[in-house]
Amino acid sequence: MGFNHFFRAKTEDFGGDLVYFQPHSAPGVYARAFLEGRLSEEQLANYRQEVGGNGLCSYPHPWLMPDFWQFPTGSMGHGPISAVYQARCMRYLEGRGLADTAGRHVWGVFGDGEMDEPESIAGLTLAARENLDNLTFIVNCNLQRLDGPVRGNGQIIQELESLFIGAGWNVIKVLWGSEWDGLFARDKDLALLRRFADTVDGQYQNLGSKDGDYNRARFFDADPATRDLVAHLTDAEIHALKRGGHDFRKLHAAFAAAKAHKGRPTVILAKTKKGYGMGNAGESRMTAHQSKKLDMEALVAFRDRFNLPLAEGDLEGLKFYKPADDSPEMTYLRERRASLGGRLPKRQAGISDDKRTAPPELSTYGKFAIEADGKEMSTTMAAMRMMGGLLKDKTFGPRIVPIVADEARTFGMDNLFRQVGIYSPKGQLYEPEDAGSMMFYKEAANGQLLEEGITEAGAISSWAAAATSYSVHDTPTLPFYIYYSMFGFQRVGDLIWAAADQRARGFLLGATAGRTTLSGEGLQHQDGTSHLTASTIPNWG
Ligand SMILES: Cc1ncc(C[n+]2csc(CCOP(=O)(O)OP(=O)(O)O)c2C)c(N)n1
Ligand SMILES: [Mg+2]
Predict the structure, then answer these.
(1) Phi and psi for 118 in degrees, rounded to 5?
(2) Residue 243 confidence (pLDDT) above 90
(3) Greatest extent of the chain over all pairs of C-alpha atoms, in Å
(4) Which of 197, 296, 334, 404 has its C-alpha lying 20 to 30 A from 538's C-alpha?
């Protein structure tokens, strides 16, 4: 649905939408790219192998496939938080007059199991608070994760609905396919609704893996009212009652409503079956996640389910199937992408020449350090002074994005509050207590400093968005994230890896690092290790 109707590619005069893909949906994205002629059979056959650059990485990795993937979402939870801070970064770039991002949309496709990661939900309230209606999450609620049900004895969709509503999001649920509509229309006393409410996800999964007669006996017959409601349906018709996430019309309606919604981000909770179309080999099975092969029976079921024009003889030894170039399917596929601006995902590898900005001479911002004259100074203070000097440069300064997680005063950066302002899309709706002072707490819609509050995961995601805007928005910015050395680094090491994977460019500063500064404060401040941990990220200078 996204590829055919909503995900717009970058063109000459439009920056394009951004899509954060569920990592293990990569094979699906590759399959589509194969149909579009972007990937060869050989590359598909080399899936999950590097083979001298002619393979395909298992998950989205901009490092391994720098012309294809934009965002590394392989570690569950990275996609959701990165999507939030990307949508916010776009507003920031707009607010500061650095890039025109209006009208562009960030889409994120995630798993229901993935939503258990703290990072997945860490940015939700920020997205609502800053009215990020340029952001849509689609959570594929197939009720399962790798090992089993996400909430065997509960209902993940209801749980997520409460969570997102509480966080201030617009929530759209796509639960039942169109085949159910007639039943709903006749169900005047809401018997179905009660059956739905009484059925836990473990049972839904079980029902999903079974045929119509089982569903009639175990689901509809449990209440005389629902039994009567489906009395006119055959078992095959009961079997064909789809879940909403497999109904293209309902999905289209949901995507369109999400896109049109103003003032808040939207989440689409789509109820699906894991392994849909895999028949006995996986559909709604406990083992769905691990099944890698389709035997002949499952292949036949797959063919039938998707109406593929293949005889049984064709299936034997079949590796890949591609409809003829002039078939209606391929024509449609190409037309849809053409109308949405072309291929996607696609990563821009460098910066356009006209967007480059040279850094100023070292002497203009680092003179005090070069000619220290025997004066000593902590590295934190020296770094901050240099950044302060860079910020004053007329052309380079505006490109700098200072980021803190509620420790600006600790690191002697509070002068920046007034000097460059703190970004807030609402400006400043109050008179700051220290309004009369030289360094008052100034919030502004074009503020430069990102004061993220106490969220290291949020701050590093913000940093990664700015550090890759050279590629994602063809707008280079130079972010400095200054964090409490120990707390800041250890907690978000995985997100730092992800930033490196997407070829981030910027500075991370573990302030008050070392065993010298705050040893009196207890073990966690005696940081002798974060330098070592940092050095384990292979592509960092
Ligand atoms: C942080 C992290 N832990 C574990 C994994 C391995 N893993 C990949 S997919 C998956 C299950 C995902 O379940 P869900 O989010 O519900 O997605 P689904 O496949 O059901 O759509 C796991 C555990 C991972 N990629 N990242
Ligand atoms: Mg799942």
Answers:
(1) -55, -35
(2) yes
(3) 93
(4) 404
